[in-house]
What does this fold into?
Amino acid sequence: MIHRSPVPQILLSRNALYISADFARDLRERGDYRLWLDNEVKAAFARWSVREADCTVAPSATFARELQQWTGKNVVCIHHGFDRELFFRDQSQLPPAQQAKLAATNGSVRLLFVSHYNYYRNFETLIRAIAILRKNLHPRTVRLILTCKLDSKDNPGDYRADSAARLVEQLRLSDEVVELGAVPYSLLHHIYRACDFYVTPAYAETFAHPLVEAMASGLPVIASDLEVHKEICGEAALYFPRFAPQALSDIVIQALQSTDQVAAMREKGTMRSQDFSWDKHVTELLQLARCLAGTSKCA
It folds into this structure.
């Protein structure tokens, strides 16, 4: 931000890590003090930026409230959008290697998690839940479909995937955890539609686009109990305590045993996904800009 800018400034804020106590604790427990210090320094600049801006926009009402409590400044919520036509437009096939990996999971309960590896998406809780599900669903098999590889060199940023990879090895889940690697955005709809549930154990989020993509694909959502997840999905999802693999496992089994509940989740999710539009997002952003510029009335 520009200090004492001569024109109104709108700040778009979408990083929940600066104010996440869980993230700070996680970094300290991992002994990643360099990343912890980096986050603390950036958080200080982020807070200053919010205070300097004439208006800050957050992608969810939940994150807007958190920013407001953190800075003492008013923050506006303008939801991110979703382009359904663009998302489902490309009907070309997945790359052969990914297609083969997905086909090998036919007949299993398929749980999908769309993310590159990072700490705040809480992969370890999900991996532990898969171990519980393997035992409780036997002889039925379960597969966790990941759109990343649990290898640090194959992931962007400074997050080390070694601990997650070791956990998969320790729990003997090499068959259950299917690492597709990065999937082009235009082809993601094939993955969503091939799976039984979308599952996210994330402990920090500001919006979470995959939730909307999953709902638009008719995929039932099981999400950690973040307020932002509840805001985006509402009654279209089931929720579990974010660090409780047993609870996650129990909810998956509960959903598998209730076809009526799953059907209702699909219907509600499809309807909820239609509430998010980039046209609406841009319209509200332009309206806010005109308000700050004094060329239109503020809502």
